[in-house]
Amino acid sequence: MKLSGYLLALLVLPALAAAPVPLQPLIDATPSGGTLRLAPGAYAGPANISRPLTLDGGRQAIIVGDGRSTVLSVAANGVTIRGLRLTGSGDSHDRIDAGILLEGNDHLVEDNEIDDVLFGIHLKQVNRSRIAGNRVTGKQLDPGMRGDAIRLWYSQHNVIEGNRFIRARDLTFANSADNRIVGNQFTDGRYGMNIIFSPRLLIENNRLSDTGTGIIVLYSPDLVLRGNRVAHALTDGGGGIVFKESSDALVENNEVLHCSVGPTASRTTSSACSFTAKRAVIAFSTTVSKAT
Fold this sequence. Notes:
Structural class: mainly beta
Mean pLDDT: 88
């Protein structure tokens, strides 16, 4: 009996020692403009950042959410989030439970691993920020029940570059003009890219595959789509690149491979508009270059 009790203690004590450290007190103790470098280990979320600072995990710190909310929320300007793993958001679409929620301007979010989240990175009225080199993997849900890997809402002059998105619903850009979306990868989704009321975007050198549709552009004029690759969009309409009521676009050097429908554009209601398509590679698509 004494021996079994001793063995039980040996099993329980490491588990207690490994309990995540509360992150919020550490953030609260960091001065404005300061840097919080987390030691290797697990930290308990959710947590909120309300002033400019740098949160650096050194690729060895994990923020574990409570499974009922957003893991890390920012409501400030000039925040850097780097080198973290964030996991375990809630599953509410109404709350938009995410790995990271950003509000404010001039942020940098780079080199983070975000997994087991409903929404990945949510930019809500964010300007002049850079989201780069992150890896986002959504929850294991049916495509229609997932959240967006990245979601921009009323956000302008941001750079979304070099991120890898896996198993999410869409990449959504809503009411978000003048952003650069460059060199990202997205696999296993519903809509590859869903662009709504977001003029003057640069969408360049992105790779989308195994989604229901490819790049869908609605009511968003003056876009440049260059050097993108859309492959294996075969459900939910299966459109490789689709424009609706979106004038004055330049579409060049894109590849649309093995999609149900190739590049498609509908006419706008404006009598003075242009749509220029150059040097596209289209292969194994059922319908190609349909204009209505």
